[in-house]
Amino acid sequence: MTGTVKWYDSTKGFGFIQSEDNKDYFVHRTGILDSFLSLEPDMKVEFEIKESDRGPVAFNVKEI
């Protein structure tokens, strides 16, 4: 799935990605493939979705 970073707080280590179908997905720093990558607003990313106890979350996030 592809989308755009809505916002990401690198200090707190989480944010949200908006998919192409306008759904928002939570992303945690542990879901980013490249540990040196800092997500920036409007960055185009590719990711997968998995269910957590709090709903769907993005993982395997990488810049495209």
From TrEMBL:
Keywords: Activator, Cytoplasm, DNA-binding, Transcription, Transcription regulation. CDD domains: CSP_CDS. One of its GO terms (cellular component) is cytosol. Residues 1-63 form the CSD domain. The lineage of its organism: Bacteria, Pseudomonadati, Bacteroidota, Bacteroidia, Marinilabiliales. InterPro entries: Cold_shock_CspA, CSD, CSP_DNA-bd, NA-bd_OB-fold. Pfam families: CSD. It comes from the Bacteria. The keyword DNA-binding applies. It is found in: Cytoplasm. Coiled coil: none annotated. This is Cold-shock protein.
